[in-house]
Design brief:
3 domains; Enzyme I, Chain A, domain 2; TIM Barrel; 44% helix; binds magnesium ion; binds phosphoenolpyruvate; Glucose Oxidase, domain 1; nine-stranded mixed sheet
């Protein structure tokens, strides 16, 4: 990010990719990564080793404290799975093997603490990346993040640079790692622009959760932004205008006013049903991860819960929650939706989500390995505890149980059997059991799966990743991760046509995209499940649709124009 004179770049439009929708403008706060600075490197004598190494130990203790603090803070602010990331960083940093490698580097090379940290971490990152395994690659990102924290403390910088970000700035960065995102809040950042980051990265998740407009994949063009430049960020279309001229600024301001008015209008009507002009009513449910989301979903007029992701009850735990704890947590979280449909998904572990209590062997292709229901059938205790807890909650609250990552009809048969057995033992009524359709095989064989499922929910995040052969976390192939690609939509229409006799919903990110809603309705979908803050807007989009059988292209272009 250079200091090119503003007059040379007036009205430059940088095209990237929308990461979180919305419009916002303000001055740039260009975030300088500590790893890009030059650190002081000097040699030490043998007798100085203990004293110099004590600096690393002290910095490690400070970072461990910071990580715990960050985890607690994010947990209380957002009730988010993100807290687990900080706890896993703590484990990584406390590894005695790491301490031994740092010490031995200092003893053999006789160099100062900063230099040791840089060299050792760079080597570890390279080692992890070279394996070509996505899980280890994520670990490499975690290590980079830890080295930044250590270097910052060694440099005597106690506050994270982002803590000093002026209120209402547009945050501009090459990448945002987990330790950066914890400093993001609606107050400090009005928008975010990053050079790299996949659509399912931590930063993407958090900006969407916070409702902060964000653009990613600006690549090296991000260097055209200097500190304090005025920026117009359009997170819906993935563009950033640098140093806008008066007419552009005016046009953007008008669009932002219209968008705000649209949002206010949508909020006013959010508790009313979403019915198209042709009289078709669509259920707009919410995706939640816990109590806070459920409250937000209720405030935003969600008609129920289409997807309760329970992973956060497990991921940071040394032991899995027992039946009592699960029943209590889940019952408490869904209390705002008394008498509404609530869909709780069974634990979807595997790939990048591995809790400390499961000592799973590393897999060469984790995304294609043991995930979701594949793991549940291999750990029957884990499955039965959840089923029993959910049967208890179902006695008080209308509940549906959703099975993640189904590929084979036999998997549904197996879970249905366990559910019936548990219900018989407990003398409880059996709640509806449904399947997530998120693999191409499940989509193509949905009719067979539907024989053992009372409802189906299409998870377009995974379905897109598997259909387009593009990892959802992998920024390098994000051009291939196209949720609205004709192949994805065609598969969706096929599923709807094959199993239209079963209730079917769409709960991936696609359901919360304004441009996709008319296409989903035309495909016959009548239930959508979206992030809590997206409920009012999606309901309003539905109300403006004329004809759910008609010309899809016409409707899409109409809505896109309205959005401008
Ligand atoms: C999906 O894959 O679309 C989905 C909703 O599940 P998750 O994002 O939790 O994998
Ligand atoms: Mg999924």
């Amino acid at each position: 990010m250079t200091s090119t004179s503003t007059q040379f770049k007036q009205n430059t439009t940088l095209a990237g990719r929308g990461m979180s929708p919305g419009l916002a403008s303000d001055r740039a706060f260009v975030y300088q990564d500590i790893l890009q600075r030059d650190h002081e490197c000097y040699d030490i004598d043998k007798h100085q080793i203990d004293e110099e190494y004590a600096r690393i130990e002290k910095a490690t203790a400070v970072v461990l404290g910071d990580l715990e603090h960050a985890a607690e803070r994010i947990e209380s602010d957002l009730d988010s799975v993100l807290a687990d990331i900080f706890r896993s960083h703590k484990t990584l940093l406390s590894d005695p093997g790491l301490a031994a490698e740092l010490r031995s580097e200092m003893e053999t090379e006789l160099i100062n603490a900063e230099h040791v940290v840089q060299r050792v971490f760079r080597r570890l990152v390279r080692r992890f990346r070279s394996v070509g395994d996505s899980k280890l690659s994520t670990r490499a990102d975690d290590l980079t993040d830890l080295s930044r924290r250590l270097l910052r403390v060694l440099a005597g910088l106690h506050a994270h640079t982002l803590e000093n970000m002026p209120v209402a700035s547009v945050l501009v960065a090459r990448r945002l790692l987990p330790s950066d995102t914890v400093h993001l809040s609606r107050k400090s950042a009005v928008a975010v622009a990053v050079a790299f980051g996949g659509p399912a990265s931590h930063a993407a998740l958090l900006t969407r959760e916070l409702g902060i407009p964000a653009v990613t994949q600006l690549a090296d063009r991000i260097d055209e932004i200097a500190q304090n430049d005025e920026l117009l960020v359009d997170g819906s279309h993935g563009t950033v205008v640098v140093a806008p001229d008066h007419p552009t600024r005016q046009k953007f301001a008008n669009a932002a006013i219209r968008a705000r008015a649209r949002l206010a209008q949508a909020r006013r009507r959010c508790c009313e049903p979403a019915t198209t002009r042709a009289g078709v009513t669509v259920q707009v449910l919410a995706n939640i991860t816990g109590v806070e989301d459920a409250r937000l979903a209720k405030e935003n007029g969600a008609d129920g819960v289409g997807l309760y992701r329970v992973e956060c009850l497990y991921l940071s735990q040394k032991a899995p929650p027992n039946e009592d704890e699960l029943a209590e947590e889940i019952g408490h979280a869904i209390a705002p939706f008394q008498n509404r449909t609530v869909t709780v998904r069974l634990l979807d572990l595997g790939a990048d989500k591995v809790p400390p209590f499961l000592d799973l062997p590393a897999e060469s292709d984790p995304a294609l390995g043991r995930r979701g229901v594949r793991l549940l059938v291999e750990y029957p205790d884990l499955l039965d505890t959840q089923l029993r807890a959910l049967l208890r909650v179902a006695q008080e609250q209308k509940l549906r149980i959703l099975v993640p990552m189904v590929t084979l009809a036999a998997e549904m048969e197996r879970v249905a059997e366990s559910l019936t057995d548990a219900a018989e033992e407990m003398n409880a009524a059996v709640p509806p059991l449904g399947a997530m359709i998120e693999t191409p095989a499940a989509a193509l064989d949905a009719a067979a799966i539907a024989q053992h499922s009372e409802f189906l929910s299409v998870g377009t995040n995974d379905l897109t990743q598997y259909l387009m052969a593009a990892g959802r976390e992998n920024a390098l192939v994000c051009d291939y991760f196209q949720e609205e690609h004709p192949a994805v939509l065609r598969l969706l229409r096929l599923v709807q046509a094959d199993v239209g006799w079963r209730p079917l919903s769409v709960c991936g990110e696609l359901a919360g995209r304004e441009s996709a809603v008319p296409l989903l309705l035309t495909a016959g979908v009548r239930t959508l499940s979206v992030a809590p803050t997206r409920v009012p807007v999606i309901k309003e989009i539905i109300r403006n649709i004329d004809d759910t059988d008609g010309d899809q292209d016409k409707q899409t272009s109409q809505l896109t124009q309205e959005a401008h």
